[in-house]
């Protein structure tokens, strides 16, 4: 069972730091909930459930831990306002799925949004998600 109070405290701190650094409070943010599992098939079932709830999913990667054990990681992604209530609501929705799958929730991350940017870095339509290509090449900023 995850400590929602602790997660909320982390969320408030991440948001506070982003805004203190000058990130745009009114922008839409890419929120990436990081999950890991030692069993690829179980991770796949988890992300299918998250996808059915309307989330996008990054491509799973195989990672070797320091102890030599292999785990699989991916992100459950949405695009929302930088709002602690919304992020907490997503965690409340996702954590039961993550626990049921036996996966590990590794927190969330997002990207700095420059309030002075001339144009939308995601293209003219303002959409981060491109139906043709679901690969995410940029690394998120984690606090």
UniProtKB/TrEMBL annotation:
<dbReference type="GO" id="GO:0005737">
    <property type="term" value="C:cytoplasm"/>
</dbReference>
<comment type="function">
    <text>Globally modulates RNA abundance by binding to RNase E (Rne) and regulating its endonucleolytic activity. Can modulate Rne action in a substrate-dependent manner by altering the composition of the degradosome.</text>
</comment>
<protein>
    <recommendedName>
        <fullName>Regulator of ribonuclease activity B</fullName>
    </recommendedName>
</protein>
<comment type="subunit">
    <text>Interacts with the C-terminal region of Rne.</text>
</comment>
<dbReference type="InterPro" id="IPR016716">
    <property type="entry name" value="RraB"/>
</dbReference>
<dbReference type="InterPro" id="IPR036701">
    <property type="entry name" value="RraB-like_sf"/>
</dbReference>
<keyword id="KW-0963">Cytoplasm</keyword>
<dbReference type="GO" id="GO:0060698">
    <property type="term" value="F:endoribonuclease inhibitor activity"/>
</dbReference>
<dbReference type="GO" id="GO:0019899">
    <property type="term" value="F:enzyme binding"/>
</dbReference>
<feature type="domain" description="Regulator of ribonuclease activity B">
    <location>
        <begin position="9"/>
        <end position="110"/>
    </location>
</feature>
<dbReference type="InterPro" id="IPR009671">
    <property type="entry name" value="RraB_dom"/>
</dbReference>
<feature type="compositionally biased region" description="Acidic residues">
    <location>
        <begin position="115"/>
        <end position="143"/>
    </location>
</feature>
<dbReference type="Pfam" id="PF06877">
    <property type="entry name" value="RraB"/>
</dbReference>
<feature type="region of interest" description="Disordered">
    <location>
        <begin position="109"/>
        <end position="143"/>
    </location>
</feature>
<comment type="similarity">
    <text>Belongs to the RraB family.</text>
</comment>
